[in-house]
Description:
Radius of gyration: 16 Å
Number of strands: 5
Largest sheet: 5 strands, parallel
Shape: globular
Strand content: 5-15%
Number of helices: 7
Helix content: 40-55%
Strand order of the largest sheet: 2-3-1-4-5
Distance between the termini: 9 Å
Oligomer: single chain
Amino acid sequence: MATNPKSTTRVVITGASGVGKTTLVELLAPLLSIPVIPELARQMCLDAGYDKIGSIPDQEGFKKQVLDRQIEEENRLGNFVSDRSAIDCWALWQRWNQNSAMTYDTEHVYNKARSQAETYTHVIYVPPMFPPVDDGFRWTEADYQKQMDRIIRMTLYDWNLWDKTLTITDKDNNARVKEVLAWME
């Protein structure tokens, strides 16, 4: 499937840790013929010399940098399929900054992420269907995965994104690709 060069295609894959977002992006990218935005937070963390995001001393600052970088990449490319999005940036901000971040910081991050999410043409939400695999980088506790999933679903609802969201229903990677392609046509 090739995209129409006259239309904008801004596809984001969202969901909790370990649900298969990266695998889905890797399988979709060659079929969609549009650039990929990889998971930026992981690379930014490694580039800063940290093996885990939790090791970064300025967590709030890092989360803001990730959101800014995500928006910068999305705007630079125009058309893309992205492994994470402004939706994920906001969900992570909520999860880790509950009652600790200054209100104006939270409102700024919320407004920036929400404004960017309005530019997405396709949102693919991947719900948890199996336990996440520990890769030494991300949180893999089942309760954490449930918390993040709930925040992402609430964000999709709050931002009125359900009308342009596909909820993946299959565990099999090839079936997931078929779901996405059929929905996008």
